[in-house]
Design brief:
The complex is a heterodimer of chains A (311) and B (336). With 311 residues, chain A is mainly alpha-helical. Chain A has a single domain, classed as MetI-like fold, CATH 1.10.3720. Chain A is built from 14 helices and 2 strands; from the N terminus they run H-H-E-E-H-H-H-H-H-H-H-H-H-H-H-H. In chain A, helix 5 packs across helix 10, helix 12 runs antiparallel to helix 14 and helix 13 runs antiparallel to helix 14. With 336 residues, chain B is mainly alpha-helical. Chain B folds into 2 domains: 41 residues; 256 residues, MetI-like (MetI-like fold, Orthogonal Bundle). Chain B is built from 17 helices and no strands. In chain B, helix 3 packs across helix 16 and helix 5 crosses helix 9.
Chain lengths: 311, 336
Amino acid sequence: MSKAAVLGRRKRPLSLRAREELNGYAFILPWLIGLIALFGVPLIMSVVFALNEVKIIGTGGYTLEFAGIENFVHALTKDAYYPKYLAESLLNLLYNVPVIIVFSFFVAMLLKNKFRGSAAVNAIFFLPIILSSGLFLQMQTNFGQDTTTTLDAAMSSAANLSALKSVNMEKYLLEMGLSEDFISIITGPIDRIYTVISSSGVQIFIFLAGLKSISPSLYEAARVEGGNGWEMFWKITFPMVTPLLLVNLVYSIVDTFTSVGNSVMDYAYKQAFTEMNFGLSNAMCWIYLAILGVCIAVVAGIMSKRIFYYT
Amino acid sequence: MNVKTAILQRASESRRLRRVERTASQVLGGLVKAVFLIGFSFIILYPVITMISKAFMQQQDVYDNTVLWIPRHFTLENLTFAYKSMGYLSALINSLVVVTVTTLLQAVSCMLVGYGFARFRFRGKNLFFALVLLTIMVPPQQIMTQLYLYFKDFDIFGIVEAVSGKPINLLDSFWPFFLLAATGFGIKNGLFIFIFRQSFRGMPKETEEAAMVDGAGTFRTFWQIMLPGASTIIATVVLFSFVWGWNDTFYSGLFLQQTKMLPQAFELFNSYLSGNKGMVGGEIATQLSRFNLEDTQVIALLRNAGIFLIMTPLLAFYAVTQRFFVESIERSGLVG
């Protein structure tokens, strides 16, 4: 019966909807294979560890003892440091992400058009991407302890350099009679300008790519219709980069959450590799990821109405 | 006649005024822009220039207060020593092979997957996309033990075992990198998929539909219509993935033991410097004895030389790709 059924079906051309579905699967096929063959197992094992008490046996193996949500409860209620680190991370996030996004968009707008020396300036803004990744990041955090890397020393002195400057400004603003809280909002990012720049490298280039892919014909049309710069920015430039604005928001949130120096992640790995408590460590990671997921969902929810797609 | 010339005169006058106004605002805007860009550039360049200048300094310059950036006693000694003891050339070749291949694989796979998520409706799409976001979030450390074990006894559903009798050990080969990259699970590939999906969704659909109507198949539309418009995005992703692959200490440390890529070579070099002389072979040991390793400043000079060696190829790579960022979209005027 099956043969006839199959033949019968093949005679009829696939509907448009079905063809679209097949095409969709065809395009994401490599990723699906990776998900099933490479990534799924480690991910599931991590969940299993979080739900069990993991005991390492001398020979290099381990035994699992089902513990339910014991690890999660322990991390949140009995652990002395974990909740504190968690709160710190969240505060850090609320403070850092808006600054990074605004700053990187601003710089991308400055770099958007060609000007004399723009190639050189672009190259300079590429450096933070190198310096804030992998080996270089590790060097700033790990080797920083024996303070022998001049890279690290120079970076902190660059940070001091800029900190000095806003001391004057702070005084000036205080004399103008502004409240201290308000001043700290202004001077805070200036004091940390080096950190802000070095964690905005990727975002700047993502924005830049978005800005550069906007078709010039849109601006031409607007100019013919008599639009000015301000209007063109809000009606063309900004809507056209909103899809990548979401990417940048998500990336910045993830980056501040999972960067090498993050206290929660460090603490979780310490649980695993010095305390040998793999179950607890994985539970801590998953709680953290859940919070991260909620943050991203909130941001995506807020953004979804405002993003401009062609679909 | 008289009235007409008066009108014409006034018109040209006001045009001239407007032009003056425009150039004035342009100059002012350019000035503000220059102040910002020069300021930020200084902050970025300061540590980098310090690092580079210290890679070429001799010991005595560090203690000379009159030397700030330009070495008085210029030397290539630090560099040649770092070059030799890192085993630079073989590490460089390994890094180049792994990073170039993974970058290409990642770019292609992430592009396809991103396009799939951007343009087609299929069952489970939202769930799968949530999983893509999850892969951005999960730090590699969380799954590293499993990944290590997985590639140590690599097997796809028991097929390999059925053919050769036992699973293959893929560690110490480049296959783990290539497999992860080809399936879109390499370093930060979730982010690349996300970038591609967002930018494809932000592109006008009309040209695509026109191509479809004209009889181009799905893949042909993708290659000929979508890709040219996405050239800046592609360049960005290629750049990121090259840099991240180059600097990656995590996967390279996990999958390779005997074979060394640049980050491991640097770590080895660094361990020599912090007094781990037990592992040092004869020639390097004699070279090492020429430097006073009790002095942290000397160690810093050598380390900077090592960093310089790792960073230079990245800058060269940027120089090759940079025209995509400086040049605008004119070259790919297909969009819109």
